[in-house]
Write a structure and sequence with these properties.
Blueprint (H helix, E strand, L loop, with lengths): L3 E3 L2 E3 L3 H16 L10 H25 L8 H10 L9 E10 L4 E2 L4 E3 L6 E4 L3 E2 L5 E2 L2 E5 L2 E5 L10 E5 L8 E4 L2 E4 L2 E5 L13 E4 L1 E10 L11 E2 L6 E5 L13 H12 L7 H9 L4 E9 L13 E8 L2 H11 L5 E3 L2 E6 L5 E6 L3 E4 L1 E8 L6 H14 L8 H7 L7 E9 L16 E4 L5 E5 L1
Parallel strand pairs: 20-21, 24-27, 25-28
Antiparallel strand pairs: 1-2, 3-16, 3-18, 4-7, 5-6, 5-17, 6-16, 8-15, 9-10, 10-14, 11-12, 11-15, 13-14, 19-20, 22-23, 25-26
Length: about 450
């Protein structure tokens, strides 16, 4: 039998093959009548030599396999990827926006640490920031449905800002809130969950919230659900409170071998320029880009989605804006317009500056309410919440939210669930269990603050 590199690939000489060959050679050299049983000197020599030879052949086989993407692994697969300029995506940290309150003007230095309640995972601030604004009184809080109207004389707040509501006896009114509307200088509204009595009672105050970008000190998909990043690790005089309004954007573990193989194939399928697959393939080569889609308008008039005549639109998740802008400019056809809200200047090989554009997918907020009938085997609603968030994060650009079976199956194996009722939609207080259709340029966004789990 032929061993080594053959027309059928690499054929490895196994231990049994080496042992048989050595026994034949020993008999040819020392005589056909020699004893080669394991308890003899010759037998022991054959065993030692065969084992060492088999180890060498295993090394030869590993070296052969290391040159091919489907059999290479680890650093060897990195080397295969480098041949076509495809690098493994590095691990990245989870990120969030933290909201701080305290004494007006207090400096919060870069690197200040906060932690997730119970879990203890730590996040650090990414810049120096000074707290802005001072506490003011709330004269009344009244609720209509999920909307709360706050009366506060000369509050000075604007739509989209965040404040902490404090000391209402009905605790559902309290906490970090986002200002939805400002009717006048003395009134604003925000949203709550639950149905507390109205009006609220107590001596109620509000603290302006100052936003700061934070990232986890550890790489990987670390969870910080809404209203859980609330522990101050570095005590600073004048800093009283921290919280997060939405879930942290989870980071990534280092790209696995299987993930790298898939991305390599997708990227190589798009080698070249101008074609949509080539542009998408080039985008997938960019470090930390996890998904990309490319659309075109081939007509001489704008299309129904607002793309100009003879233009392309690239939607990208992950990666640096500058890298994406340069790539879409390098890969597009001459004379074709780039469409998108993210823009920047790129320079061609002639030293001429151009404006390149692309888009990030628009997030479609998903509101979800579950009524679970459970028994004593049910662990906790947090297990179901974790499954739902994992399901949501698996959806890509343009993926619809399929309730049955996809969403339901994401937590169907949690023990103790006897029955489930689902209400889902893109606005608060959904009433239907229909699938949520996501346009091609959008992506479903699941957030713990928009998921309600009722245990029956």
């Amino acid at each position: 039998m032929t061993f080594g590199v053959t027309n059928n690939g690499f054929i490895t000489k196994r231990l049994s093959d080496s042992k048989a060959e050595l026994e034949t050679l020993f008999r040819q050299t020392f005589g056909a009548g020699i004893k080669l049983t394991p308890d003899t000197i010759f037998g022991k020599l054959v065993g030692i030599m065969a084992e060492r030879e088999a180890e060498l052949w295993e090394g030869f086989e590993a070296d052969y396999n290391s040159h091919y993407p489907n059999s290479a692994s680890g650093l060897s697969l990195d080397g295969v990827g480098e041949i076509t300029a495809i690098s493994r995506n590095a691990a990245s940290p989870s990120t969030a926006i933290a909201y701080l309150s305290g004494t007006n003007g207090t400096l919060i230095p870069s690197g200040t640490l906060f932690a997730v309640q119970d879990a203890g995972d730590q996040f650090k601030t990414l810049s120096n920031i000074n707290l802005a604004g001072s506490q003011f009184s709330i004269t009344s809080l009244t609720r209509s449905g999920s909307t709360v109207t706050a009366d506060a004389t000369a509050h000075g707040r604007s739509v989209g800002q965040y404040v902490f509501i404090n000391d209402a006896v009905e605790t559902e009114y309290n906490g970090l809130v986002k200002i939805e509307t400002v009717a006048d200088a003395n009134t604003f509204t925000y949203l709550i969950t639950g149905t507390p009595s109205s009006p609220a009672t107590g001596t109620i105050t509000s603290d302006p919230a100052t936003a700061v970008n934070v990232e986890c000190v550890d790489n990987g998909p670390v969870s910080a659900l809404a209203n859980t990043l609330n522990q101050i690790i570095n005590t600073i005089s004048g800093l009283d409170r921290v919280d997060n309004y939405t879930d942290a954007t989870k980071g990534n573990n280092i790209e696995t071998d299987s993930e790298l193989r898939v991305r390599r194939i997708e990227a190589l399928q798009g080698l070249g320029a101008a074609r949509l697959e080539a542009i998408r393939g080039a985008l997938l080569l960019i470090n930390n880009v996890t998904a990309a889609k490319v659309f075109e308008n081939v007509d001489i008039v704008p299309d129904a989605d607002g793309r100009p005549a003879k233009s392309i639109e690239c939607l990208v998740i992950g990666g640096l804006d500058s890298d994406i802008l340069q790539t879409v400019w390098d890969k597009k056809a001459a004379g074709i317009e780039l469409h998108g809200s993210v823009s920047g200047t790129v320079t061609d090989t002639q030293g001429i500056d151009h404006t390149a554009r692309f888009n990030r997918p628009v997030a479609t907020n998903i509101y979800l309410e579950l009524d679970l009938t459970v028994n004593v085997d049910f662990p906790s609603s947090s297990e179901v919440l974790s499954r739902l968030l994992t399901f949501g994060s698996s959806l890509l650009i343009g993926d619809d939210v399929i309730v049955f079976p996809s969403l339901i199956s994401s937590f169907s194996d949690v023990p103790g669930i006897l029955d489930v009722a689902v209400r889902i939609g893109t606005a608060a207080s959904p009433t239907l269990d229909d699938n949520v259709i996501i346009p091609d340029t959008q992506i479903a966004d699941f957030d713990s603050a928009r998921i309600t789990i009722n245990i029956l």
